[in-house]
Amino acid sequence: MKKYLAEMVGTMVLVLMGCGSAVFNGGCGTPAQVLMVAMAFGFSVIAMAYTIGGISGCHINPAITLGCMLSGRMKNKEGLMYMLFQVIGALIGSSIIALLTSNIDMAYATTTGANSCASGVGVIGGFIAEVVFTFVFVLVVLGTTDPKKGAGNFAGLAIGISLVLVHICCIPITGTSVNPARSIAPALFAGGEALSQLWIFILAPFIGAFLSSCVWKLICDHK
Fold first, then answer.
1. I need a labelling partner for 182 at 20 to 30 A (CA). Which of 10, 20, 116, 119 fits?
2. Is residue 187 a contact partner of residue 179, using CB atoms and an 8 Å limit?
3. CB 83 within 8 A of CB 8
4. How confident is the model over 129-137, as a mean pLDDT?
5. In angstroms, rounded to a whole number, what is the distance separating the alpha carbons of residues 96 and 209?
6. CA–CA gap between residue 205 and residue 182 (Å, rounded)
7. 113 and 22 in contact (C-beta within 8 Å)?
8. Which of 60, 53, 56 is nearest to 17 (CA)?
9. Does the pLDDT value for residue 222 go beyond 90?
10. SS3 string of 37-57?
């Protein structure tokens, strides 16, 4: 249970800080805002990696958990419980943002930080982007946390930096999910377009995670 609670708290922090950075700093309409939100998500992962990494591994992302399950690093039952508590944590994070926005009078570009495909991107473009960038992110996670070939104590730093890079590139396309829990909670609060497109930000990251686990098995030699 301690592992599950750690995943819940970690995911709550990720959503609160990542989505909150967009909510309270005017969205992602400028390059500076894109960089700010990208760093908020990446730094949140780094902070949590060194806080709860020793307890749960700090997945705080169902796509990462799926990658670990497919790579044989954890049992399916445990992985599904991780996912459940990650979604619960994300809901808590979004609830805190909703509580704050309902009591703070500001001109919000977004009150949830929910994902949606940008104008002109379309469903196919957004779907492909989420598959590709989740693939890259989860591959970094699998590589840096590999028990024999990994980066050891530097894994959290590498993972956080990779998430910053992914956000810098993908925010203009979909707002960047690469994390179903991060998308589910804000979409439930936002409704409308975010909710209607939610399937993209659940299915595409899982496909990306599946592909990354396959590639890691091909390129990793534990002999």
1. 119
2. no
3. no
4. 98
5. 29
6. 11
7. yes
8. 60
9. no
10. HHHHHHHHHHHHHHHHHHHHC
